[in-house]
Design a protein that fits this description.
This protein has 344 residues and is α/β, with parallel strands linked by helices. The protein contains 14 helices and 14 strands. A five-stranded mixed β-sheet has the order 4-1-5-14-6, sandwiched between helices. α6 links the parallel β9 and β10. The chain is globular, with a radius of gyration of 22 Å. The structure holds glutathione (GSH).
């Protein structure tokens, strides 16, 4: 009996040590700095992350960084944005130059494991496609054999491109360029026949970057989607609590949409009788404590940034120049894949 008590006490000591150990050093650094450092794409991607002449960043990805900042600091603007190329982005997380990457990074097994990173969710279900000038006269990716194709290095895009052409017994000449604005410039200057990347980035390029006198209508995105590109926030492996906050900030935006909580009605929703809404908004406390943030964390995200649907529509959807359909990114309740685990 005595032995059992001693063993149990030893076991409890281990358990009680597990608590503080999980509040890792990345979160401590972010809190001490009073600012979250988010990596974004150099040159920007319309709708996802673009910077104006005043240095102000906007877009869907920026809104997710802002949501995390709201959960951490009660203020959505405590974020510094660091532009990175597709090749620099993961090293920048590994080295601590940025706390996280909120670029358009595809969640894959090797990135999640061998690179020492963690993907905390999927904010956008994307897939790879091809952008061509209409004057090329091509209607399908199957007609691209022999084409010169602009592509960014260090991307899933580069790998899928090689797989797709090999599988279809076609040849191509890659033009590999690191910075996305330089890829676009090369494509529009005719240095390549085709530009390939995530379909959402192609839609952004077509809507926002075509140099006049040519317009949107002079270009076509081919119908084939040749890969799965689930885009997610990336953090360093090892600080579970920081990863949890990044993960649940996105889930809170999705849960808010599911329960009809918007930036416009969130104060009214504080009076709701719905127990789920009361938990999300912190009227019934407990969720903030469990996550290690203020009980008003999700309220603040929705109040300052909006729910997932609001940011999607404003930046990418019908309220934006991109006019991208929600498609796979509809909530599961509307036939889509976006599904947040319950906040409880
Ligand atoms: N989703 C693909 C392609 C991403 C990609 O090529 N992104 C370009 C712009 S379209 C870039 O510069 N990305 C920087 C970033 O995602 O942070 C991947 O993760 O490899």
């Amino acid at each position: 009996m005595k032995k059992f008590v001693v063993a149990m006490a030893a076991g409890m000591a281990v358990i009680s040590q597990a608590g503080p150990a999980s509040a890792g050093k990345d979160l401590d650094v972010v809190k001490a700095r009073g600012q979250l450092v988010c990596g974004v794409a150099v040159g920007g991607i319309a709708g996802f992350m673009t910077v104006d002449s005043q240095g102000k960043w906007t877009g869907m990805n920026v809104d997710i960084c802002r949501g995390i900042s709201a959960a951490l600091f009660g203020d959505s603007e405590k974020v510094k944005y660091v532009p990175l190329t597709s090749q620099q982005r993961f090293t920048a997380v590994q080295s601590g130059e940025v706390d996280m990457v909120m670029g358009n990074a595809t969640y894959t097994l090797t990135r999640d494991t061998a690179l020492g990173l963690d993907f905390t969710g999927i904010f956008y279900y994307d897939g790879q496609s091809f952008l061509v000038p209409k004057k090329l006269g091509v209607k399908s990716a199957k007609e691209l054999s022999g084409a010169t194709i602009c592509v960014a290095p260090g991307t899933t895009t580069e790998l899928n491109l090689a797989d797709y052409f090999r599988a279809n017994k076609m040849s191509f000449k890659p033009v590999v360029i690191e910075k996305v604005d330089e890829i676009r410039a090369a494509f529009f200057a005719g240095r390549c026949d085709v530009y390939t990347t995530d379909a959402s980035s192609l839609a952004a390029t077509r809507a926002a970057n075509v140099p006049p006198p040519r317009t949107f209508d002079d270009f076509l995105i081919l119908p084939e989607i040749i890969s799965k590109e689930p885009l997610g926030p990336v953090v360093r492996h090892g600080d579970n609590q920081f990863a949890d906050i990044v993960r649940w900030a996105l889930y809170a935006m999705l849960e808010a949409e599911e329960y009809g909580i918007t930036s416009q009605n969130v104060d009214e929703m504080l009076k709701s009788d719905n127990p789920a809404i009361k938990r999300i908004l912190g009227v019934t406390p407990g969720m903030g404590k469990a996550l290690g943030v203020d009980e008003k964390w999700a309220y603040t995200i929705v109040k300052l940034v909006g729910n997932y649907g609001e940011t999607f529509e404003r930046n990418l959807g019908m309220g934006s120049p991109l006019k991208i359909e929600r498609g796979l990114n509809k909530l599961w309740t509307q036939g889509g894949l976006q599904y947040a685990p319950p906040i409880r």
